[in-house]
């Protein structure tokens, strides 16, 4: 292990944490997890009143909190804002958590063009662009962490959620590439691939949510992985077993089985 790597591993205590998608769900749980005196939180989301409510909870725990309401589909605006936040106070930890699910509407032959475009932008293009902008600031400082919130959906060819599955798969590869590139420069990069978390996103699914965990439990596992600069965290671990088992199944058979899975989403 090089000196910068060792330094990054042993001395990580973030004083400025920026979280996207912090207006609810996992992002809110992450914000509350990191909220404490001497920690500044910068929380991004679209819904200003929900962001404000999360900020109030975090301030009650002693944090200084700034909120920004923006749509990540406007990537240039996101990059400018990230740079402005970093100019004001260097960002030690960037958590790219915002995401949208995309399930083919019931009875439709394909996913919708709008949903596919949105998933591509919010789940892949925005986080990889923002991560690059952050890494360009952190690397010269030889300090910082970036965490990507992917999904175990990246492990399989989901016929009913091609945009979600593939955007998260692209995110996974980007994250491990960036981990490899940044390790000698003292910047940690962690890919998080969760199974079902009890948030608004998974509650919209019409069906079982096996091995469901709470957003608070997920947040503390993620913080633990980030603290030790773990490259990849998959939880619950049963999904890691499923990933390796599915790699043994011939693709044609796997696709036939996956087509049988009737996953529906409410509110489409
Ligand atoms: N829940 C699960 O079972 C599960 C499983 C695996 C992975 N994940 C991943 O975990 C992450 C968090 O999901 P969650 O479960 O907490 O979902 P959630 O409750 O639906 O929260 C999603 C967050 O992303 C923000 N967001 C969505 N579209 C946006 C856009 N265009 N611009 C800016 N912000 C946007 C939302 O902001 P507003 O509400 O303010 O619009 C919200 O804060 C996502 O990346 C998701 O893919 C979730």
From TrEMBL:
Entry-linked SUPFAM superfamilies: NAD(P)-binding Rossmann-fold domains (SSF51735)
Keywords on record: Oxidoreductase
InterPro entries according to UniProt: NAD(P)-bd_dom_sf (IPR036291), Sc_DH/Rdtase_CS (IPR020904), SDR_fam (IPR002347)
Sequence similarity: Belongs to the short-chain dehydrogenases/reductases (SDR) family.
Protein name: Oxidoreductase
